[in-house]
Amino acid sequence: MHAAGWKSKMPGVKITQYTEDIPPGCSSPDFDRKPIPLTIQEGKTATFKAIICGEPKAQVTWSRNKGDMNDGSKYKITYDQIMDEHVLQVISVTGEDADTYKCSASNLYGEAVCFATLIVIETVNEDPTEFRKLLKKSPKEGPSRQQKALDSKVWEVLLSADKKDYERICIEYGITDFRGMLKKLNQLKKEREEEQSKVQYIFVEAISNLKHIQVTSEGSAKFEIEMQLKDENSRILLYKDGQMIPYSEDMEMKHNLRKVGKKYIFSIRDLLPEDAGLYQVDVEEVNVFSTDLPSKFIPINFTSPMKEVHCKEREDAFFEVTLSHPLPKLVWMYKNQTLEAGDKYGFTVSEDGLTHRLIVKDVMPVDKGIYSVAAGIRSSSAWLMVESKLPLKVKPHNLNKRNFFKNSSKDLLWERRNCSYRSKYLGAHFVSGLMDVQARKGHSAELVCKLSSDQTEGMWFKDGVKLQSRDGLAIYKDGCNHKLILSNVQDSDAGKYRFEADGHKSESYVVVEDPPEIDAEEMEKLSKVPVVVKAGQNAVIKVPFQGRAPMKVSWYKDGDELAEDHRMHIEKGPSHSRLLIGKCQRKDSGDIKLKLKNDSGTAEVATKLIVLDKPLSPQGPVEVLENSASCIQIKWRPPRDDGGQPINSYTVERQQVGRNTWVKVGEVPGSTTTFTSDKVDHGKKYCFRIRAVNSEGVSDFLETEDITAGTKAFPGPPAPPKIVSASSKAIALSWGAPHNTGGSRIAGYVVEKRKKGSNLWTPVSNEPLKEKKCVITDIVEGSQYEFQVAAVNESGMGEFSVPSNFVIAQDPMRPPSKVKDLKVTGSSYSSLSLSWAKPDVDEGDEAKGYFVEVKPANSITWLSCNSAPVSLTSYTIKGLKSMEMYFVRVTAVNDGGRGEPQELDNYVIAMPPPVIALRPHFLQDASFKSFMVVKEGSTIRVNIHFEASPTPEVIWMKDNVPITKRATITNTDGLSQLLIPTSDRTDSGIYSIMIKNCFGQESLSLEIRVTDEPKPPGLVTMEEKVPGTVTVFWEPSPDEKYDNRLHYMVMKRDSFKLSWQTMADHIFNNKITATSIICGRQYYFRVYAKNDMGVSEPSESPAWNINKEKDKFTVKLPHYKQNDQRQAPRFSVGLKTHYVPLGYQCNMSCAVMGNPAPRVTWYRDSVSIMKNADYQTSNVCGVCSLIITGVRPKDNGEYMAIAENSLGKAICTTRLIVIEPLGLG
After folding, report:
1. Where is the signal peptide (predicted)?
2. How does residue 226 score in pLDDT terms, banded at 50, 70 and 90?
3. Alpha helices in 396-488, H assignment, sequence order
4. By CB neighbour count within 10 A (0-12 exposed, 13-18 middle, 19+ buried), where does 1150 fall?
5. Partners of 733 in the beta sheet?
C-alpha cells in the first residue's frame, strides 16, 4: 500500500492518503471540527468532540499516549447521530488521566489523525476544621470572570508579544490575575518551544528578528521574520483567525509575501476593518510566529469626503464627512490652526459615530479659505466660498490694489466692499481644477476644469505650447466648464497640460499607458485547442503580442515559472515569444501560461499541453476476490496515468510457480479491472501479470504474489452496524461489507445483540442473513442495545465488527415546536444579544438545545452562529458588520430533529441602542476608600466605575496638575483605570478624576501614599538640663523628608527593671524629656521610626546614670490638724478614641484619683478582659494603661475602665477602631 501526504483544511490534522486516484463522490477522511485541548479540575468529566467528513463513512478510534483505554466505565466512546459528533468522555478525571489523546478516522482511501491534550488541575483536601476559614476567604482570591473566559487568541497574542506589552494586553482583554496569567504563559511557552524545536529540526535552521505587525501611513500593514529554511521548497502558510488565506509574491493580491535574502516580509494592502485579527505564519504544519492586528490600528477612510461650500455673508456654513467606521471625535483645522467649539465653531456627531459635521457660524469674508479634517492618518479638505450681501457701486479706478487686500479691523465696511467686488475686478477663479489623467494608447482622454463665471474665455497649453482644435484634439466650452478631448491618444500626447483664464491657471499631466496586448483570436485559439504531441517529439508554442517596451516575458507550467535548460528554450522577441520543449515527456503535460508585464499593465494567455505516451502499469495491490479449488478471481486498479489516451484493454498472463514460462490467459476491456482464471489445480501456486494497453503502446506489468488455489481464508470484520431507525417494537440496522473477503464470495452475515450492562451476546437469527441490513423485533421497550456483525464465506465465519452505538428501544421523539418571546436584549456595532423562552411541549417534545442563525439583508443564505446547539435560552451573536441590517431566527432541536425556526418580526441593525441622556455620576460602593497606602515598588491600580450617557470625557489630575506619563489611563465603557506599574514616593498625592459630558460633570478624589518600612533613626544622645530629668536627642530617620506621616516612639528601661516600657509615641520632633530619673540607676532608651507601613529597627542609647550625694538636713515638721483625706474615685485624665491600623500596637491610658487607692477593672463590650492574655494592663501611681500588642478586626469595639474603692466608683469609656488595609480596586 502506497501512502501519500495530503494537506488538511483544518490546522493540526495530518492526513495519509492511500491512493491518488479516488473515484468521484468519494474522499479520504478529514476533520470538520477537531477535538480541542482541555484544562479541567480533578473529579470532573472531560469531553472531547470531533466532526469527521469523508466518503465512505470513516471508522473512528480513540487512543491515548501513555496507556490503554480498555476500562469501559472510565472511557465512554459514543456517536451522536443528530449532531454527527464522535464523542470521547473521560469520567471523573484524575492526575493519571492527564495525557495526549489521539483521534483517528480511516476509510478505504486514507486516514486522518489529530491530537488533543488533557490537563488536570489537582485539588487539595482541606482540613474540615478549617471550613470556617474557607467561608471567610475574600472572593477576590478566586479567578476573575474574564480570566476564565480567555480564548486562545489572547494567549497567541501574549506568546508573541514583548514583556513590555504584557500590561497593555492585560488591560485590553480585562485580565486582572497577573500572577495566574504569567504562570500559564510560561507553561504555554515551554510547549511552544518544544513545538518550535520540532520545526527547527525538520524544516527550519534558524529563526530571528521577529517584528510584529505595524500599520504604515499609506494604509497598509506589514510584519517581518528572518528565517533560514532547510528545504527552500517547504510551504509557508498564512492564517488569519485560524483560516488559511492566499497570498501572492508579486504584490498583486491583498496579502503578499516578499523575500529579501533570509527576510520574509508579509504585507496587507488597503486595510479595512475586517482585516483586524490574529495572523499566524506556519512552515508546513507547525506555527512559527503569531501577531495581532487590533481593529483600532486600522486607518479610518472617508466614504464621503469634504465638499466645497458656498455660503452668503452672515449665514452659517456646514461641512460634513462620513467615515468608514465609528469615531467619537475628529480634528478640524483652518489655516493650520485646530478649531475649538465655541461661539464661532460647532461640532456635531451622529449617534452611530460615522457622520461628523463642522458648523462655521455667522460667516464673514475673512472666513473664506480651505478647511480640513483629520481622522488618524487620513485627512480631507475643501474650500469655503463667501458671497457678500452688500451691492455697493464702486468705480474701478477708485480701487487701490494694495489697499484692496489690506485687512483693517477698524473699517469693516471697506473690507466687505473689497471682498464683494474682488471677483468682479480680479476675474474668475477655478471652482474645480484639472486632474491628472491616465489614458490608454488608442483610446480617448478628457481634461475638464470649471470656472466661477461662464463669461470667461481661456487658453490651453501643452508643455508650454498653445493648443488649437485639430484632428484628434477638440476644445469645448460649456458654460463654466472647459474641456479638452483627445480622441485617439498616442505616445506624443503625453505631457503637462495647462489651462489659463484671467490670470489664473490649472495644470495636470496626461500619462499614456500602453499595456501588453495579445490578439483576441490567438488567445481564443490557445485557450480552446490544446497543444498535443507524442512522447519524444518537440513542442512549440508561439504567441504574438504588442505593447510598450521593455516587456517582461514569463512562462509558467502549473503555476511554476519555467527556466531554460537542456530541453527547454524560451525565445523572446519584440513582438512575440516562443516556448520550445525538446523530446517531450509525459510529465511535461499540464497548464501552460504566458504572462506579459510592462510599466503600464499585464496580460496573460493560457493553454494546455498534452503529451501522449503509453500508460503506466496498473495499480496494486491485487485483491483476490475468490479463491477456490476450481477458480481464482483477481481485481486491480487502473493505472495512475493512462498516457493521455483511454485504456483499450488489459492483458493477463499466468505462471505456475516453479516453471519459467508465462502464458497469456486472457484479455479484458479497459472498463473492467477484474479477471477470473477457471483452469487451476487445487493446491498449486500461481502468479499473474497484468498490462494496460492504449493506442500509444503497452504498459509495464503489475505482478501479483503467489496465490494458492483453494486455500482457506476467513473474511475480515465488516463495518460497524449503523442504526437506521428505532422504535419501541423494532430496530433497523445496516452495515458495510468487509474490506477483506478472504478470497471468496461472502455467503451471508451473522448479527448479534447485547443488552447494556450484560456480557452475553445472542444471535438475532438462526441462519446467516443474505443482505447487509436487518430489522430486529425481539427487543424490550425502554432497554438499550448494541449490535455486532460478522461475515461468512466458504471458509466459515470471520471476526465480528466493532459494536454499534447503544440505541434505546423507544418511539422516536417529536421535534420541538417554535421558541417563544424571541427578542433583542442588547446590541453594539459588532454584536447582538438575544433571549427567548422554551417552546411549548403540547405541539412537540422538550428541546435539548437551540441553533441561532443570521441572514444579512443583502443575502439569501442563513448563516449558523453556533456549530453545536446551546442549552441556554440566550445567545450573543458576534462578528457583525457595523450598521448592517440582519434577519435573525432561532430553532429548537432534540433527538427527534429540528423544529420550526422562530424569526424576529423585523430586521435588526448592528448598532448600540439610542443614547439616553444621563448626567455623569460615580458608582462606588462602601468598599471604596478615599485613602490608600501602597508599598514603594508595587503596582498602583485604581478602578473607578461610573455611569453617563453620552460617553463622557474623563480627566485625571494629581495635586491639581495633569497626570504625568508615568501613569497609564485606560477608559472603557463605564470604567476608568489608573495604573502605575512600579510606584515610588513621588507618586504620593491627591488624585482626582473628573467625568463630564453635555449634561454635567462630577469629580472624585482619593489620596494615595507611597511609602515603605522606615529606616531607623540616627545617633541617640542624652543631656541633663533639669535635675531629675534627662532629655533624649536623636538624628532623624532618612525617610522623614519623604513621609510627613512618619513619627517616633521612645521606649526606656532602667537597671532595676528588665522589661522595656513605652515612654511616648506619636512624636513628630527629634527629642523628648524623661522625668522621675532616680539617682543611682542606669537608664537605657530606644527610639523607633513609625509610619503607615510599619516600625523600623530601634536605635539604642548608651547607659545613662546620675551619681549625686545628698546633703544632710533636718526638717522640723509643723503640726497640722489632721484632716480626712479619703475621697471617692474620679478620672482626672480620660480615655481617648483610638484609630489603629491592623496589626499595630494600641496603648490606652488614663489617670485616676481616689483614697484609698481604687482598684481598676477593664472591659470590652461590657465583658471583663482582665484575665485575657491578649491584653496587658498596668496601674502605676494612678496612671492606668491597657496595651494590645497587635490589634485584630475582632478588637473593634467599646472599652471601659471602672475604678472602685470603698467610697464609690467611676467609669471612663472609649472606642477602638481598627483600620484595615485598602484594596487596589
Report:
1. none
2. confident
3. 401-404, 412-426
4. buried
5. 723, 774
Cell of 643: 498516457
**C-alpha torsion angle, residues 533, 534, 537, 540 (rounded to 10):** 10
1204: nearest Cα among 1160, 1156, 1163:
1160
Look at residues 820, 852, 751 and name the one whose alpha carbon lies nearest to residue 792.
Answer: 751
Nearest residue to 1187 (alpha-carbon basis) of 1051, 1089, 1074: 1051
**Backbone phi and psi for residue 187, each to the nearest 5 degrees, phi listed first:** -65, -45
Q: What is the pLDDT of residue 270?
A: 80
Sheet with 968-972: list strands edge to edge.
Answer: 918-922, 940-949, 975-980, 968-972
Residue 1175: partners with Cβ closer than 8 Å, 6 or more residues away = 1162, 1164, 1169, 1186, 1187, 1188
Rounded to whole angstroms, the Cα distance separating 1018 from 1216 reads: 33
Non-local (6+) Cβ contacts of 1092 within 8 A are 933, 1009, 1011, 1045, 1141
Q: What does the chain come to in residues? A: 1225
Q: Is there a contact between 703 and 689 (Cβ–Cβ < 8 Å)?
A: yes
For 134, phi then psi, to 5°, come to -60, -35
pLDDT in tens, 675-732: 988 888 887 888 999 999 998 899 999 998 888 887 767 888 999 999 988 888 899 9
Compute and round to an integer the Cα radius of gyration of the chain. Answer: 46
- The upper half-sphere exposure of residue 1022, i.e. CA atoms within 13 Å in the direction of its Cβ, equals 23
Cα distance between residue 1058 and residue 1078, in whole Å = 16
The vertex-876 CA angle with 870 and 882, nearest 5°, equals 145
Residue 540, helix vs strand vs coil: strand
Of 307, 316, 308, 304, the residue nearest 452 (C-alpha) = 308
CA 387 – CA 371 distance, rounded (Å):
17
The answer for residues whose C-beta is within 8 angstroms of residue 448's C-beta and 6 or more apart is 434, 481, 482, 483
CA triple 461-463-468, angle to 5 deg: 30
In percent, the amount of the chain with pLDDT more than 90 equals 23
Question: Which residue has cell 483614697?
Answer: 1155
Helix (H/G/I), strand (E/B), else coil: 81? coil
Q: Which of 1048, 1079, 1062, 1220 is nearest to 1148 (CA)?
A: 1062
**Cell numbers standing for residue 741:** 473477503
Answer for the pair 229, 279: CB distance below 8 angstroms, yes or no. Answer: no
Structure letter (DSSP) for residue 209: E
Interatomic CA distance for residues 113 and 63, integer angstroms: 11
**CA dist., res. 1017 & res. 1037, Å (int):** 4
Distance CA 1169, CA 1162 (A): 6
pLDDT > 90? residue 173? no
CA distances from 49 to 4, 264, 733 (A): 27, 37, 24
Measured between alpha carbons, how far is 270 from 279 in angstroms, rounded to an integer? 16
Q: Is the pTM of this model over 0.90?
A: no
**Number of helices (H), then strands (E), in the chain:** 8, 98
Cα 589 to its chain centre, rounded Å, is 45
Which 8-state DSSP code applies to residue 197?
Answer: H
